[in-house]
Amino acid sequence: MMSRNATEVYWESFLHSSFQDQPLYLAATERGLCAITLPNESFATLRAWAERKIGNAVLIQAPERMSAYVRQLREYLDGERTAFELPFDLRGTDFQMAVWEALTRIPFGQTRSYSELAGAVGHPKAVRAVGAANGANPVPIVIPCHRVIGKNDALTGFRGGLKVKEELLRLEGFHAFNKNGHARFRF
């Protein structure tokens, strides 16, 4: 029996050849998409996120409820979609929410530097904080944190690994990046 204060979090796994068929886990509440894991993350990552951010979450596998989210992600990865039309249920600080909202304004196939993103949220000196908020994005790909690269066009700081970031940028037709970046942030 579920507690009266429990929040139902629906989830489904998703496989795609872009990630060598390693599973992603998508999760949503009644309000909208709340989390996506990356290929290097497990279901335990999703469970830990839900416990930390929602606390009273009850994870329920629900393929039907998650079908629109899975369909749009598949369309994007298949090159058939350039923008997502999904509701969100994001949980973060006001600053994180501002950064995540700014990420949604970076057009498909384009990038911004961490410095540019900091300026876009009205905190031009908060470049490292922007990097941290970018890394805490609970719905990567859909909120396109992969579109943020270093000032020197280097691939940097992606939770899913630089190979995944490179794959996503190439999928969008963006090739003007320096592959000599590193997994740690260079702003």
TrEMBL record:
Residues 22-90 form the Methylguanine DNA methyltransferase ribonuclease-like domain. This is Methylated-DNA--protein-cysteine methyltransferase. Belongs to the MGMT family. It is an enzyme of class 2 (transferase). It is found in: Cytoplasm. InterPro entries: MethylDNA_cys_MeTrfase_AS, MethylDNA_cys_MeTrfase_DNA-bd, MethylDNA_cys_MeTrfase_DNAb, MethylG_MeTrfase_N, MGMT, MGMT_N_sf, WH-like_DNA-bd_sf. Residues 94-173 form the Methylated-DNA-[protein]-cysteine S-methyltransferase DNA binding domain.
